[in-house]
Specification:
With about 475 residues, this protein is α+β, with helices and mostly antiparallel strands. Helix content is about 50%, strand content about 15%. The chain has a 5-stranded mixed sheet with strand order 8-5-4-9-10, with helices on both faces. It has a 3-stranded antiparallel sheet with strand order 1-2-3. The protein is elongated and about 95 Å long. The two termini are about 30 Å apart. It binds zinc ion (ZN). The site of zinc ion has 7 residues, from loops.
C-alpha cells in the first residue's frame, strides 16, 4: 500500500514474529490502529484521507495471514478427487507449495497432488477448490481486478492504478497475461452459454408474448499487428500488411424495456450486447443466442435496424427471416443530403430549404413520396455528374424503400434509428481504438469478451465471488 508514512519516531510499528495465533496478530493490529489514530489527531496537516491510507496499511498483515490460513485449511480439507471427472486420485503426495498474490499480499499454500487414472493426468484438487487453476499465479480476487482493469484501460495505466488503489503490484506484462487468460476463459464460457441458449430454446414450448424484440447491428474497425515485423517482407511480395479488421457489434432489447428517465433521457432498462472480431458468422450466432436469452423466443415480433451496409441485411435475412427490417433514419437523411449537395453545391440556404421538407416528409409521411419527388428532379436534369449522383442516391433509396416505414414505426413507438448500437460502438472504441494502439487477434477478442460479460451483467458467472452487478450504461 502506498502510504504517507506517519512519523515512525512517534509511532513505532511492532514487528510480527512468524506463526502466531491470529488473535495475537489481530490484537497487534488493533494496537497499530490505535497508534495511527493518535498520530492522526496530533498531525494538524493531515485530513481523513491520510488516516484511511494508514489504516488500510495497518490491517494488511492481519488480512494476509487470515487469507493464508483460510487457503491452507481449505486445501487441507479438499477431498482427493479429480476436479474434472470426480474420480478418486491415486499416488497421492502432499506438501507441494504454491505461492501466489492475493488481494492482501503474497501467500504460500501446501497442496496435495494425485493421479487421475480416468483422465490420465496429475491433478491438484486444492487448486480447483481455491480458484487457482486458470491463472498465471493470482488469487480469484486479483484475477478479477486484472480482468476488469485491462478491459477498461490500457494495461500500463491499469498496472499503476491497481497498485495505487490496492497496493497490489502487478507489472504491466503480468497484468496483460492474466487479463488475457481471464478473457480466454470468458470466450469459452460465452461459447458454452450460447450453446445452452440455443438448446433451451429447442426444449421449450414457448408461448408468444406481446412484446417486440429490437435487434441492432453495426461495425467498427480495430488495428491489429498479427503480421507485425513482417511488413517489409509482405511489401516485397506486393502485399500490403493488413492492419484493420472489422469488429461486428450488435445489441438487442425488448421494446417494452425502453423508457425515459424523469429528466426525459431515453433509457433501455435491460439490454444485451455482442462484439466480436471473429467474423459475421460469429456475430450472427452470438447475437442470436443473446437475443434468445433476452426473450426472442417468446417475442411476438422482431425488428432489425441498421445502416445501409449490405452485410447487415444478409445477416438479418439469414438469421431472422421473419423480422421486420428498418434502415437507420439518419443514414437515409444523409443520402437525401447527398442529393441536395449535388443540386445546390455551396449554396447552404437553398440546400437547407430543399432538404428540410423532404426530411419531414420522410419522417412523418412516406418514403414513396420522397422517392417520387427525387424522380421528378432527375427527369429534368441534363445528363452529367449531378444527374449521376441523384440517380445513384435514388437507386439507394429505392433499394431500401421497404425499410423506410418511419411513420408506421413512430406510430408503433418503435425506434427509427440505430443510436443504441452506435453508442455501444463508440464506447468500445474508447478502449480498443486509442491512438497508436495495436492488438493481436487473440488479445482483442479475449478482452472484448470480458467487456461484453461486464456489459451483459454476467460478470458474476466469470467471477462467482463477486456479488457486484455493474450498473447499466
Ligand atoms: Zn479425472
Amino acid at each position: 500500500m502506498k502510504t504517507t508514512p506517519l512519523d515512525s519516531e512517534i509511532c513505532p510499528l511492532p514487528q510480527a514474529p512468524a506463526r502466531e495465533p491470529l488473535a495475537v496478530v489481530a490484537a497487534r493490529t488493533a494496537h497499530a490502529l490505535e497508534g495511527s489514530h493518535q498520530c492522526f489527531l496530533a498531525a494538524s496537516d493531515q485530513n481523513l484521507g491520510h488516516f484511511e491510507v494508514q489504516a488500510a496499511a495497518d490491517v494488511q498483515e492481519l488480512l494476509r495471514q487470515a487469507t493464508q490460513r483460510a487457503a491452507q485449511a481449505k486445501a487441507d480439507t479438499t477431498p482427493p478427487l479429480c476436479p474434472v471427472c470426480g474420480h478418486g486420485l491415486t499416488r497421492l503426495s502432499g506438501e507441494h507449495p504454491r505461492s501466489f498474490e492475493t488481494r492482501f499480499g503474497s501467500i504460500t499454500v501446501q497442496r496435495s497432488r494425485g493421479y487421475c487414472k480416468r483422465c490420465h493426468k496429475w491433478r491438484v484438487p486444492a487448486d480447483a477448490a481455491l480458484g487457482l487453476e486458470e491463472t498465471a499465479g493470482y488469487s480469484p480476487a486479483v484475477q478479477e481486478m486484472a480482468a476488469l482493469l485491462a478491459s477498461k484501460m490500457p494495461v500500463a495505466e491499469a498496472s499503476v492504478v491497481l497498485e495505487h488503489l490496492t497496493g497490489i503490484k502487478l507489472p504491466r506484462a503480468s497484468l496483460d497475461r492474466e487479463a488475457r487468460r481471464q478473457g480466454e476463459r470468458a470466450q469459452s464460457l460465452r461459447t458454452h452459454l450460447d450453446k445452452q441458449a440455443a438448446y433451451e430454446k429447442k426444449q421449450l414450448e414457448l408461448t408468444l408474448e406481446p412484446y417486440q424484440m429490437i435487434i441492432q447491428l453495426d461495425a467498427w474497425n480495430i488495428r491489429e499487428r498479427d503480421d507485425w515485423g513482417k511488413s517489409a517482407a509482405l511489401r516485397r511480395a506486393h502485399q500490403e500488411p493488413e492492419r484493420w479488421h472489422w469488429v461486428y457489434t450488435g445489441t438487442c432489447f425488448r421494446l417494452d424495456h425502453r423508457g425515459r428517465t424523469a429528466g426525459g433521457r431515453p433509457v433501455i432498462s435491460e439490454r444485451g450486447f455482442v462484439a466480436t472480431r471473429q467474423g459475421l458468422e460469429a456475430l450472427r450466432e452470438q447475437l442470436h443466442a443473446e437475443a434468445l436469452r433476452r426473450g426472442l423466443g417468446q417475442a411476438a415480433s422482431a425488428l432489425v435496424i441498421g445502416d445501409g451496409a449490405v452485410w447487415i441485411w444478409r445477416v438479418a435475412d439469414d438469421r431472422w427471416p421473419q423480422a421486420h427490417q428498418r434502415l437507420d433514419f439518419y443514414h437515409a437523411v444523409q443520402h437525401l443530403a447527398a442529393v441536395g449537395r449535388a443540386l445546390f453545391g455551396e449554396d447552404k440556404e437553398k440546400f437547407k430549404a430543399w432538404l428540410k421538407p423532404l426530411v419531414q416528409q420522410l419522417k412523418h409521411q412516406s418514403a414513396v413520396k420522397v422517392i417520387g419527388q427525387l424522380q421528378e428532379v432527375l427527369a429534368v436534369l441534363p445528363n452529367g455528374p449531378t444527374a449521376g449522383t441523384v440517380s445513384k442516391e435514388l437507386n439507394y433509396l429505392r433499394e431500401h424503400q421497404a425499410r423506410m416505414d418511419y411513420r408506421a414505426g413512430r406510430r408503433a413507438g418503435e425506434p427509427i434509428g440505430s443510436g443504441p448500437v452506435e453508442a455501444t460502438c463508440r464506447q468500445m472504441q474508447c478502449r480498443f481504438k486509442r491512438p497508436g494502439q495495436f492488438w493481436s487477434h487473440r488479445g482483442d477478442e479475449a478482452l472484448m469478451s470480458l467487456e461484453i460479460f461486464w456489459r451483459n451483467n454476467r460478470w458474476h458467472l466469470l467471477f462467482p465471488h463477486t456479488a457486484f452487478n455493474p450498473a447499466r450504461n
